[in-house]
Structure formats: structure tokens, C-alpha cells
């Protein structure tokens, strides 16, 4: 596709369930980012991949959050034992370069996660 | 932790009015990006400013990076309903990491 796609667009989970959110970046993009956006807030950085290497996971809120990009393209954000405070929109972005400087990030439409 | 503030938080104006939104920080940045986000979509890049004092124009939008590279403003002339959205500033210190502000939510009424 022409842009970044994410699936599912909406996910409702019961507290304690595990969820997996998928991101398909633009083909050939080296860098991939995951952000969490709470209602009324700006996106907050979760983690960064350069190809298949996860170079920064400092923004992941807890060890219940895990992200991978095994072949350097598609990425999955997994949240184990979901809690109500995990409810948010999860945004994925990709950029062509290695991430240094001021590369343009292309965002997907996000996955809205609601934990009941 | 750097402090990044955007103001105002909310702005509701009539079509045709002018407006300015601000992004202020306690830190010096190497560059700053402005994004617009519409409901149900991801942010879309509007502009990147790099040099202190730099001014960039994008049709009716004028972006300025402060001389000290700690603040930025976005001015919209003759706002239109299509300008409605969440405006986010995202400065960077030269690495891959962008810190997004909380945004200014703009509504332009027809």
C-alpha cells in the first residue's frame, strides 16, 4: 500500500486479556516507531526500531508491553494482561532514514484499544 | 525531563479569522516539526524548521522557529473549516526521538 497501515483499527479487550497490534510500514522504510496517545494528549514515544533492531524501548510503560519487528518490516506491539490504563490509541510511524536529524515520520491511522 | 507546552489548548474561531498557536520549551532543540492530526487519523507532517529565526510559509500557514531554538509559532491567516484539527509540535535534539506536545485543538466554524 501507499501508506502505513495498522490493524485492527479498533480493539476491545477485557481486563487481563492479551492483545496484539499490527503495523505495516511503508515498504523500504528503515525506521519504525510506536506511540501511545491518550485522549486529549499528544503521542508519547514507546519504542523505536531501525530495521529489525529495537534500539530504544525506554517508553514502554511496563514489562507487559513488548514489541518486535523480526524481519525489519511488519511490527507487532503486544500487551499482556491488559489493564484499564492501557486504553489509548496506539500509533505506528515509519520513516525512510535511520532516524537521525529531521526525517519525516509517516503515521498510520492508529489502533484504538479499549480495555473494559 | 524537558518541559514542552503548547498554547492555547483549545481554540474555536469563525471562518476567515486569523490565529496563532505557540510551542514553548525550556530546552534548546536542533529542529522542530509541526503536525496536524484529524479525528481518527494519524498526525501528518506540515513543516520542519531547523535554523533559529527561520520562517517558513505553506499557503496560509506561517511557521517560525525562535532565535534561541526553544520556541515556535504557527500562524494561520483567514482560517477555513478544513484547518480544523489537532496541531502538534514535535521538537528533536538531533536524534530519532521526537517529543510531542499536548497539542492545540482548533475548530474553525463555517
Q: Classify the oligomer.
A: heterodimer
Strand content of the residues of chain A, in percent?
Answer: over 45%
Biggest β-sheet strands, sense, barrel of chain B: 5 strands, antiparallel
Please report which band the strand proportion of chain B falls in: under 5%, 5-15%, 15-25%, 25-35%, 35-45% or over 45%: over 45%
Order of helices and strands of chain B: EEEEEEEEEE
Quick take:
The complex is a heterodimer of chains A (116) and B (110). Chain A is mainly β. Helix content of chain A is 0%, strand content 47%.
Give an account of the 3D structure.
The complex is a heterodimer of chains A (116) and B (110). Chain A has 116 residues and is an all-beta fold. Chain A contains no helices and 11 strands. Chain A has strands at 5-7, 10-13, 19-24, 31-37, 44-50, 53-56, 65-68, 75-79, 88-95, 106-107, 111-115. In chain A, strands 2, 4, 5, 6, 9, 10 and 11 form a 7-stranded mixed beta sheet that branches. Chain A is globular and about 40 Å long. Chain B is mainly β and 110 residues long. Chain B contains no helices and 10 strands. In chain B, the strands form 2 sheets. Chain B has a 5-stranded antiparallel beta sheet, with no helix packed on it. Chain B has a 5-stranded mixed beta sheet with strand order 2-10-9-4-5, with no helix packed on it. The mean pLDDT of chain B is 92. Classes of the chains: A mainly beta (116), B mainly beta (110). The interface between A and B is medium-sized, with 29 and 26 residues.
Amino acid at each position: 500500500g501507499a501508506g502505513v497501515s495498522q490493524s485492527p483499527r479498533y480493539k476491545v479487550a477485557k481486563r487481563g486479556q492479551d492483545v496484539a497490534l499490527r503495523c505495516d510500514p511503508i515498504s523500504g522504510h528503515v525506521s519504525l516507531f510506536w506511540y501511545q496517545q491518550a485522549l486529549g494528549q499528544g503521542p508519547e514515544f514507546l519504542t523505536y526500531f531501525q530495521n529489525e533492531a529495537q534500539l530504544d524501548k525506554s517508553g514502554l510503560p511496563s514489562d507487559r508491553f513488548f514489541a518486535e519487528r523480526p524481519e525489519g518490516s511488519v511490527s507487532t506491539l503486544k500487551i499482556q494482561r491488559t489493564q484499564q490504563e492501557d486504553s489509548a490509541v496506539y500509533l505506528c510511524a515509519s520513516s525512510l532514514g535511520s532516524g537521525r536529524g529531521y526525517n519525516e515520520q509517516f503515521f498510520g491511522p492508529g489502533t484504538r484499544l479499549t480495555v473494559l | 525531563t524537558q518541559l514542552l507546552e503548547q498554547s492555547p489548548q483549545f481554540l474555536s474561531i469563525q471562518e476567515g479569522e486569523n490565529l496563532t498557536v505557540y510551542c514553548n520549551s525550556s530546552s534548546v532543540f536542533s529542529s522542530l516539526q509541526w503536525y496536524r492530526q484529524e479525528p481518527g487519523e494519524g498526525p501528518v507532517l506540515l513543516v520542519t524548521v531547523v535554523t533559529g529565526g527561520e520562517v517558513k510559509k505553506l499557503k496560509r500557514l506561517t511557521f517560525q522557529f525562535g532565535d534561541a531554538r526553544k520556541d515556535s509559532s504557527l500562524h494561520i491567516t483567514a482560517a477555513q473549516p478544513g484547518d480544523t484539527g489537532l496541531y502538534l509540535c514535535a521538537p528533536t535534539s538531533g536524534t530519532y526521538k521526537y517529543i510531542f506536545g499536548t497539542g492545540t485543538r482548533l475548530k474553525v466554524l463555517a
